[in-house]
């Protein structure tokens, strides 16, 4: 059975979507459970993709292709994971803040987190503070990820954190921020729990904060 999971991981790392979907189906057909496919196939593969990125061997395009391939495999096993009541690593709400329509970085963070076993609610782009608050009220959320690619929309991160605080929800969630103009100092200044410069380190930070 190990060879099926190794082949599946290799397909994810290479961004081979057809290979991933075929690999997941082959693993299921041989009796490997969905949880094992996730824990021993998809998650380690995305961990390796993150390592290759941090080592300078992979760049954003390679990460995106690998993440999309992983997501295709995850779509097949998700209903089975729900049926077998396998708990996600945590629930994460992500969105690009109000006034900002950039989504490549946010999408990559969402896919990498999903590949690491987190449940993701992606609110999209141009998301107002009230929309983040509504999402937190609606469900039990562990982590919020705020993205901004423009210096002009960065202050909206502070407004969003303030809105979450005023709604009495700040103690219930950890908040991380990211995007090209964002810095660790700015994250600290606005009261975020952490800053991630890229999708790979967003996963590490999420694991660290959620424990």
List the main descriptive attributes of the protein structure presented here.
single chain, 211 residues, alpha/beta, five-stranded parallel beta sheet, 10% strand, globular
Topology:
Layout: H1 2-13, H2 17-29, H3 34-54, H4 60-83, E1 91-96, H5 104-115, E2 119-122, H6 129-138, E3 143-147, H7 155-166, E4 174-178, H8 184-189, E5 194-195, H9 199-210
Parallel strand pairs: 1-2, 1-3, 3-4, 4-5
> Which sheet architecture does the biggest sheet show?
5 strands, parallel
Oligomer: single chain
Strand order of the largest sheet: 2-1-3-4-5
**Kindly, what is the distance between the CA atoms of the first and last residues, rounded to a whole number of angstroms?**
30 Å
Average pLDDT taken over every residue: 95
Briefly note the structural class of the backbone: alpha/beta
Strand content: 5-15%
Q: Indicate the low-confidence ranges by residue numbers.
A: none
Assign a percent range to the helix content. 55-70%
Q: Tally the beta strands.
A: 5
Q: From N to C, what is the helix and strand string? A: HHHHEHEHEHEHEH
- Radius of gyration using CA atoms only: 17 Å
Total helices: the number is 9
Shape: globular
